[in-house]
Specification:
- The complex is a heterodimer of chains A (502) and B (312).
- By secondary structure, chain A is mainly α.
- Chain A contains 20 helices and no strands.
- In chain A, helix 14 packs antiparallel against helix 18 (415-444).
- The two termini of chain A are 20 Å apart.
- Chain B is 39% helix and 21% strand.
- In chain B, strands 1, 2, 3, 4, 5, 6, 7, 8, 9, 10, 11 and 12 form a twelve-stranded mixed sheet that branches.
- Chain B contains 13 helices and twelve strands.
- The model of chain B has no long low-confidence stretch (mean pLDDT 93).
- Chain B has helices at 15-18, 24-35, 46-53, 70-75, 124-129, 145-158, 162-169, 180-188, 201-209, 239-249, 252-262, 276-279, 292-311; strands at 7-13, 37-43, 61-66, 79-80, 101-113, 136-139, 173-177, 194-198, 214-216, 223-233, 265-266, 287-288.
- Chain B is globular.
- In chain B, helix 6 (145-158) packs across helix 13 (292-311).
- The chains are: A mainly alpha (502), B alpha/beta (312).
- Chains A and B meet through helix 5, helix 10, helix 11, helix 16 and helix 19 of A and helix 1, strand 2, helix 3, strand 7 and helix 8 of B.
Amino acid sequence: MAPRSIQITACIAVSAFVFLPIIFVWREATHSTSFGSPEWSALRFTIKQAFFSAFLSVILAVPLARALARTEFRGRNLVVMLLGAPFILPVIVAVLGLIAVFGQNGVLNGILMFLGLGKISIYGFQGVLLAHVFFNLPLATRMLLFGWQSLPNERIRLGQSLGFGAWPRFRFIEFPMLCKIAPSAFAIIFVICLSSFAVALTLGGGPKSTTIELAIYQAIRFDFDFAAAALLGLMQLTLSMTAALTALSFAQNDVMGLGLDRPFVAVSRCLGESMLDFVVILFFVGFLFLPLLLLLVQGASGIWDLPGSVWSAALRSILIALGATGICLVVALPLATRVGELVATLGIAVSPLVLGTGLFLIVRPYVNPFDIAVIVTLCVNALMSLPFVLRILRPEVETTQRNFANLSEALRLGPWAKLRWVLLPRLKRPIGFAAGLTAALSMGDLGVIALFGVAEKATLPLKLYQLMGSYRMDEAASAAILLLCISVGLFWIFEKWGQWYA
Amino acid sequence: MAFSDTDVLTVYAPDYFASEWGPGPSIEAAFEKECDCDLQFETGDVLARIILEGSRTYADVVIGLNTDVTKKARETDLFAPHGQDYSKLTLPINWTDDVFLPFNYSHTAFIYNAEKLSNAPASFEELVSSKEKFSLVIQDPRSSISGLALILWIKAVYGDRAESAWEKLAPKILTVTRGWSESYGLFTEGEADMVLSYTTSPAYHIVAEGDRTKKALIFPEGHYLMMELAAKLEGTDNPELADDFLAFILTDTFQNLIPTGNWSLPAALPKSEWPKDFKELPLPSKVLFYSEDEAASLRDEAIEEWRRALSK
């Protein structure tokens, strides 16, 4: 879409932003390093939990996305929008929400005890999976939902005129679409889970659930062993990129075929199918929203009593989120190609700790890191949202380009004119969604900038941690709700903007 | 507000210390009243930052280092002797380090809710070998200083039998968290009977919440001591101001800000002058502590014992 030189520049810029920090951390190493059995078992556990978390998230997202794509009901848009909420919560908050439902004293165990059944324990491998599915099922669902919505109406109508029932419709229309979209969803969630650390440890119940990211944390913050940190970071990056490459080779071409760019029509279903869809939606909505609802009950009343500093931190976080969104979209548009998407995956493949340390080493000779903490936060937040934004944008960009290629040529539109008259108007909906996601993600991100220090310019998530760190758990719960409301609010505003006559 | 032509003293401090809920802001105000200078906290990962910055660091003073990192910090050769008088210290151990100056302390302890747990164990051994299904939340020694203090504590109590103590404790450990906040959050949610924290934790609940149900288990085997320290940078361009600040740390003004500011015990203030609620806190009569060299030689082995026992 953009001129080739801009595409290449964007790819190089993103790669440099990821690889240079790793190189700088590596250069800081004073001795060589080697792995012992704890590191290898951490590697094995990291891959295992990421694989099963991604697999479950995608498999479970299929019935949910399918049900949502086919069912019209009041509040459907609200449900679809709120689906984003678990994904953007700060880890610790989400864990507390899950524990309110599934913990020792949680709602579920309360019901089981009442029924005279034994308690279940969330702590263990099942807990890790539960939490990762809670975080990522919504993401997978949204990605698959886009797949369903991008099915050309012409195909659905063709299916209907051939008298397709549920099974042939799935086999000949939906399944081919899933084959193209599901591998990317799997890969992106696999990569996210590779760098999981606090969740895996807390819900995994102990050192059995040690991930590579914990080893990196230990290396940087406790052992000051930068060789180990760089090596582990590189290992994590390699794993992630292998997964992303594999996924891309599955999804050779995730464009759904030519259609006439018309809105979605609902398919006719028999009563049994409608009921089933309804049950599926109800079940997953319960699973995803109950923890959030309990958090809300706990924290909402205290929001107005939060000190002014928390509110100013919230404002600062909103500005950072908006800035990151702007940067992210500008970088994302020229990256909307296969190679570009692969490069963007680097944004979540790199260990946040290694990235933060490396950036510190790069800027330190020239400026006081303290003074540029906000700018670094902006850029890192933008980088970490890139993969999600491209996953949303690229298929749409490619479909639009393919559908309008002849027309653009006939009118002899240059690249900028094409962007202005063909692409942007048609991309409004995915851009709105991508912007909402980036803003929300940036709100909840704690930042990778432990070394830069931000106490006086604290963001909302940092304030939340400060409150917890000084025993103020109730106020932290309220700050978490404030954070959640702002994140969802930003998401909602951007998405509404995208849907405006789109 | 300080003026631009006054001297600036740059102090690196952990985030919790300099946050508005930590002691930092009141310490800053009290010192600026005396020094005619501008004290600026730069927060973040203090020692990692100093190590990465080397001799080009902006810091004049660091505050909030823990006893378990003094060895690494000392090996950088970036710190200068503090030159302060040890005799003012009121620590439960004899401290004669001429580089790292303690400003507060506490002990590792398990905190429980006395309303919910009636049969609280009376000794470490009772906790370890009890048949009761106690549930504990602890912190990971690889990512948390309090978690590290726990494995040294058990090492100090059990010595060579530490691994078998961990094996007996393992079924009672509900989970292990990255840091203290996560553990304490789980505990206040009612998820576990006990949480690894500090002997001074109940003081927060008493003073700030009027809640007397949270108590520390005091064990006759002793409790591991945790101190926080300050130090002056060798390369400071403000050596006199840095010395003034270190001297200020030992004054009553500073020390009186510690109990309810950092929820810990002042390192240079006799017990008779502590706030009432701190005076009444049950504290251990026996204190355990490893010197930095002892701790360094035990650490890797103790972490590996912990990992093996809890991975079964």
